[in-house]
Amino acid sequence: MNKFKAFVVKKKAFRRESTQPLIENNNVIQHGFKQAPCTKYENALVQNTLDIHKEQRLQSEEQITPEKLAGLLQVPLEDGFCCSTHRQLNAEQQHLCLVQRSVDQHFPKLPPDVDQNLHQYLENVQKMVITEFVRLGSPLTRMGLMGSLIDCYHRETFTRLDDLLQNVRSSKNSFGLMKWVLHTYLSPEMLCHPELQEVDPIKKVDLLLFTELVGQAKDKLLENVECHYNHTAEHF
Predict the structure, then answer these.
(1) Which domain of life is it from (predicted)?
(2) What is the spatial distance between Cα 150 and Cα 165, in angstroms, rounded to a whole number?
(3) Which of 36, 75, 134, 222 is the most buried (most CB within 10 A)?
């Protein structure tokens, strides 16, 4: 009887031990069966997504040819400094070169007599910037180049305003120039114009350059007022 019980207990223990690896192996197989296809699918999905993005990026780059961009910006493909180095530049550098060339070509030239033509010149700048931003806003935004155009126009505007400050002689024009910088440049009459809401050029204003320009305008105004006062005092 005791021998029979011992045999039964031993047999049950053997069955538990013999079935345990089978269960573990089965779990591994089930785990492998469930996970392996999922992992392969996820990897394929990720790779496919990356391939699509890469293809879209390459298509976008291919669409922005220098010839097409030059035609859109209404500038010659090769000109001046860029003419000798244009073919040595990569695609992005060529695009920026053409954008800067467009700004240089379309920006109004300084008048011979600044004091006589200051008001008209500022109106021309105002009209030109709005016209170019509206004309180029949609296509350059799709090309990813509108930010570069806005930045180039900001810097060119500040450069021309600095030139104007060096050439104005009357305190009246100095005050008018400072007023234009403070109240027109960032107003709905120019950078906040209703037609420019989509491109939103005001968010790309270099506040450091803007602050420096305002300070220079104030200094020039004080200088011209002092000169005018001294000149007037000499005649009394």
Answers:
(1) Eukaryota
(2) 23
(3) 75
